[in-house]
Amino acid sequence: MSKTQHIGATLKAGLWQRIPPFRLVLGLCPSLAITTSAENGLGMGLALAFVVTLSNGIISSLRNVIPGKVRIASYIVIIATLVSIVEIVMKAFFFPLSEQLGIYIPLIVVNCIVLGRAEGFASKNPPLISMADGISIGVGYTLSLTLIGSIRELLGSGSWFGLRVFGESFEPLAFLILAPGAFITIGILLGLQNLFSRWRGEKFIQS
Amino acid sequence: MSEIVRMVVVLSLIAGICSAVLTMANQGLGPRIEQQTDLYVRGPALERLFNKPATEVLPNKVTIETDEATIPVFFSRDGETISTLAIEAIGAGGYGGDLKLMVGIDLTTGRQIGIEVVQHSETPGLGARIEEVTFRRQWQDLPTDAPVALASDGGNIDGISGATSTSRAAVSGTNTVLTFLRNHNDDILQQIAQREEQI
C-alpha cells in the first residue's frame, strides 16, 4: 500500500472500523456521563480530538527518544499538559461549557482512548500517520458523542442544541437524560452498528 | 550514556518543557479567565444586588489587599457619589465547605442591601436553601455598624432549619465584610478614586 493510501485508510478507520466508543470500546465513562445534550457531546468530542491528535503527533515524534521503561510516565506528562491547555482555553473562551463538562475535561488525561492510541499506534508509527489516526479517532468520537447527545437531548428534553424542537404537548422521556438512558442509548446504537456490519459481512477490526 | 541516566534526563526534559508551556498558557490567558469567572460566577449575584446588567457593574472593580486575603469590591455610583458597594466574603464553616458570598452595602443610608451566594457546595434541600430569597431577604436594611447574628444566638436572622452550620457560615461571612468595611472604608474609597483617575 502506498503512503497516501495508508494515510487515507487510517483517516477513514476512525469513522467506522474503529469508531470510539462503539468499535474501540474505550472512553465509555465520559460518553455515558456528559452526553446529556448534543452541545456537551460536541464540546467533549472536540476537546478529545485536539488532545489525541497532538499527543499522537508529539509521542510519535519522540518515540525513538523516550526510553521504553518510562514511556507511560512520559506519555502521561505530555497528555496532561495538552489537557491542561484545553482546560485553560476552554475556561477563557467557553466558560459555561467548561462548567458543564466539569471534571470530565481534566479526566481526559486518563482517557483510555488517548493512552490507547499513544501506546497502540503512535509509539509504532511515524508522526504524520499518527496525527492522521488522532484526527480520525477524534472526529469519530466527536460524531458519536454528538449523536448520543442528540438522541438523549431530543427525546429526553425535547430540544436540540438548546433549541426547542417539539411543541408544548411533548412529554419528554426524562429517564434518557439520567444514567440509565446513557447505557440504553449506547447499547442500542452499538447493537445497530453490529447488526449493520454483520449484514454487510464486514470483518471486525479490533486494533 | 547509561540507561538509567538517559531515563532521568529524558523524563526531566519532557516535564520541564511541559511546565514551561503550561506556565506560558496560564500567564497569557489568566486575565481572560478571571474576566470570564467574574461574568459567569459573580455576574448573576451582582446583577441582583445592583439591579443593573452585569456588564455594567463588572468593570467597576477594585481589589483591596488585606493581611489575610485579597478582597474584590464592586461599586456603583449615583451621580458623583459612590452609592453602593458589593464586597465579596468567604463564609467559613459551611457544611460542604466555605461559602462564597457577596454582601451589598448602601453607603448613602449605611445599611445592607442584602447578601447573594456566589458559590456553595451545601446539601440540596437543606443548606442549599441559602439561595432562597426568603432567607437572604432578612439582610435587607440591617445596619452596617452592628454585627449580625442568628436568632438562636440572640440576633435577628432566622436560620434555615436543619442547616445551622450553613446559616452560621453566612452570618460569619457577613460579619467579616462588616469588620472589613469598618477598618478599610477609607482604603476602598481611595482605591476607587485612584482607579477613576487612571481612566
Automatic annotation (TrEMBL), chain A:
The keyword Cell membrane applies. The chain crosses the membrane at residues 44-62, 74-95, 101-118, 130-152, 172-192. InterPro entries: NqrDE/RnfAE, RnfE. PANTHER family: ELECTRON TRANSPORT COMPLEX PROTEIN RNFE, ION-TRANSLOCATING OXIDOREDUCTASE COMPLEX SUBUNIT E. The complex is composed of six subunits: RnfA, RnfB, RnfC, RnfD, RnfE and RnfG. HAMAP family: RsxE_RnfE. This is Ion-translocating oxidoreductase complex subunit E. It comes from Desulfofustis glycolicus DSM 9705. The gene is rnfE.
Automatic annotation (TrEMBL), chain B:
Keywords: Cell membrane, Electron transport, Flavoprotein, FMN, Membrane, Phosphoprotein, Translocase, Transmembrane, Transmembrane helix, Transport. InterPro entries: FMN-bd, Ion_transpt_RnfG/RsxG. Its cofactor is FMN. It is found in: Cell membrane. Its EC number is 7.-.-.-. Residues 94-181 form the FMN-binding domain. GO terms for biological process: electron transport chain. SMART domains: FMN_bind. GO terms for molecular function: electron transfer activity; FMN binding. Its main location: membrane. The keyword Phosphoprotein applies. Pfam families: FMN_bind. It is a single-pass membrane protein. The modification FMN phosphoryl threonine is found at residue 164. Part of a membrane-bound complex that couples electron transfer with translocation of ions across the membrane. The complex is composed of six subunits: RnfA, RnfB, RnfC, RnfD, RnfE and RnfG. PANTHER family: ION-TRANSLOCATING OXIDOREDUCTASE COMPLEX SUBUNIT G. This is Ion-translocating oxidoreductase complex subunit G. It comes from Desulfofustis glycolicus DSM 9705.
